[in-house]
Inverse folding.
């Protein structure tokens, strides 16, 4: 069984779904600490493309400085969701597949959720359905009840809760910093690196921009998006 684990990002990028599609089981790491002060982190924001370049869509959250987990971080409902759906409509309404996804996305984003994890998880599951990715998805909070477990110890606890023989990891700087291949060998788990190469595709508004939210690909390519992800 190939297992992968990742935090519940908001409106994730293409590589997030490539990782899930290559796994038998995907664990949403919802009971890990929400990062403090990481400007590039996508836990509560992601990018879309506009006629003036990239635009960040950010969900305002409460108490992020208090080192709470994703499933404890409350959303600050100050009208942000109306702005997000308005921006999505303004910049994607002329794409070929806008009508196929916009109403669903609008309804999900306008619904009020208790935590940022709840919102992101709802969106992730919606995108998986649209992309016809049938990987089993579970929340880490339903697996590991020991709040003292951290880092690799927690990851191994999750992996050993299933018949895992392969772990698919992102190959970004964060993962490379804390993952030691020897630790996985000792657990008889093969460590696989994702090594995802971002595809290019036709977009509106000029020169191609990579690492945008999955909605950019979906609005432009519809069902064909699956091929770009896999």
């Amino acid at each position: 069984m190939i297992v992968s684990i990742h935090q519940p990002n908001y409106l994730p990028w293409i590589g997030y779904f490539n990782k899930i599609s290559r796994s038998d089981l995907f664990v949403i790491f919802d009971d890990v600490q929400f990062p403090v002060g990481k400007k590039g982190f996508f836990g509560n924001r992601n990018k879309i493309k506009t006629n003036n370049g990239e635009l960040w869509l950010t969900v305002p959250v409460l108490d992020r400085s208090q080192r709470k987990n994703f499933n404890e971080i409350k959303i600050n409902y100050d009208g942000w969701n109306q702005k997000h759906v308005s921006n999505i409509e303004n910049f994607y309404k002329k794409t070929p597949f806008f009508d196929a996804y916009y109403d669903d996305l609008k309804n999900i984003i306008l619904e009020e959720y208790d935590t940022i994890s709840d919102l992101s998880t709802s969106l992730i599951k919606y995108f998986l359905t649209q992309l016809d990715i049938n990987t089993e998805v579970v929340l880490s909070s339903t697996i590991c009840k020991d709040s003292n477990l951290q880092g690799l110890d927690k990851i191994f606890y999750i992996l050993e809760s299933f018949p895992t023989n392969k772990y698919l990891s992102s190959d970004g700087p964060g993962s490379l910093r804390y993952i030691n291949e020897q630790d996985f060998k000792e657990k008889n788990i093969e460590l696989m690196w994702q090594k995802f190469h971002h595809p290019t595709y036709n977009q509106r508004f000029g020169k191609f921009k990579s690492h945008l939210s999955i909605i950019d690909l979906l609005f432009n390519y519809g069902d064909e998006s699956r091929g770009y992800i896999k």
Remarks:
- The mean pLDDT is 93.
- The two ends are 18 Å apart (CA to CA).
- The chain has nine helices and seven strands.
- Residues 32 and 69 are 5 Å apart (CA to CA).
